Amino acid sequence: MNEYEAVKDFSQFLFTIDNPVKEPLDILQEEPSSGEENNYLFPAPLDLGEGQEMQRVSLIDISATEDSITELSRAESRLTDERELIREFNQFSFTTPIPLYVPLNIVQEEPGPNLGAATVTEDSLSFAPLAPSNFQNLTADIGRGFGDPDNRYAWSVIEEDGFLFVGTLNVENGGEIWRTSLDETNWTKVFDFGTEVQGIRELVVYQDQLYAFTTGDIETEPSGFVSSDNGETWTEITGGPLDSPVNESIRTSIVHDGLLYVGTIDSSGAEIWTYDGANWTLEKKFSEDIETISEFIEFEDELYVGAWNNFGSYFFTGENFDVDVTPSFRRFFDVNNGGVLDTVEFQDQLYLSTWNFISGFSIFRTDDPLTGEWEIVTRNGFGDRDNAYGWNMAVYDDPLTPEEGDELYLGTFNSGFYDGNGVPFDGPGQLYSTPDGDTWELVDIPDLGQFTWGIRNVLVTSTNQLVLGTATNNILSQDDVPSGELGTQIWIADL
Fold first, then answer.
1. CATH code for the structural domain at 119-141+289-494
2. Whether the Cβ atoms of residue 303 and residue 317 lie closer than 8 Å to each other
3. Among 69, 97, 106, 486, which is most buried by a count of CB atoms within 10 Å?
4. Global pTM?
């Protein structure tokens, strides 16, 4: 990357703070004095009309090298509004021998209902309206958190062989796996991992067996277990990513080309491993710049991986996951997009969602990631900057009208930072749906409770039912909130 590309990237940012700058900011440079090396970006100030004032931005000072571009990217990640971005960017200077004559405008748009291609409404869906009365609370009898309010998240949810399995996050008492039949509610705890395991982050079916992967504590590597009898008995598996204490968690998985792929969280560099039912193979060890493998998706016969670190989002493909197909605009069009959260294929397009605590999550879509051409669906949480996560997506294919009845569902995490009630992290999470990716509806769902900050899992079952697994505040203790407000819930609705 040279400095022209960096400038072009930088100029694409559109910011949405509460007090937007009304005018574009021009970064201007004067002609160098005689004998002075010309390493300025612009040859002269603009000729302003009478009575106009020029907003001058100081000379930029950094070499146009890959290292400096990396440092610039890291600097961007720490910024919260356009003024900070300008101040930070001014610390750098590009040193091309040929000045660039393109003015650099940092454009500030007024905040709007939704920034992106989508239209968001609260009207009923025309093809299959959902209302609170459509939903049944599968945890109503057993109680929130399956009777333990410290089971805060339905961290992983999967259907297999007529059963619904839920893996929980429970930092106090340890993660658990619960099972119920889909045709009747009969919850059974089929695994209790103890306090060394914070939660079951990933459930996946491979070779007709159910695999469970956990997150340990800061001193314990993740663990893996497999069941061939729908959770009645479990056998621990070892090796590969499960024998590395620096691997904090197996965060995601996919079955591809006959192998089970898993992605890890590792501050020394995330890893991708494959498993054939007996042996592990390390497919990729990223540098420490990539700390989290967050998502896999197979699209048009290619395997893609979403990743992040503290400074940005990444999207890779290729035989060795070394083909960077991250959208060409730095940090996925927004300086505060922290990472890829979920991906899904819907109507022949790949949809990708992010997390963003400043502007609200973004969603992008493309029919060919290899071209780098992405469309913005939203870049401000559908107009609600509290919608920090586009957390999980699921697709419903109507078997009666396959050409018209498709629907994409999205569950969010809602931070509560900006709603004005003075209680952060209070949610509530929201559910959106769309029949075409262009028009989205905020679905009317039951009251999930004040401290249900997100819908962690959205699942469409083989019986054409929509399952929602919720996540409640995982920071406050039970003594900090009213009784009955904590603990995950499982809701289901016929589609």
1. 2.120.10
2. yes
3. 486
4. 0.77
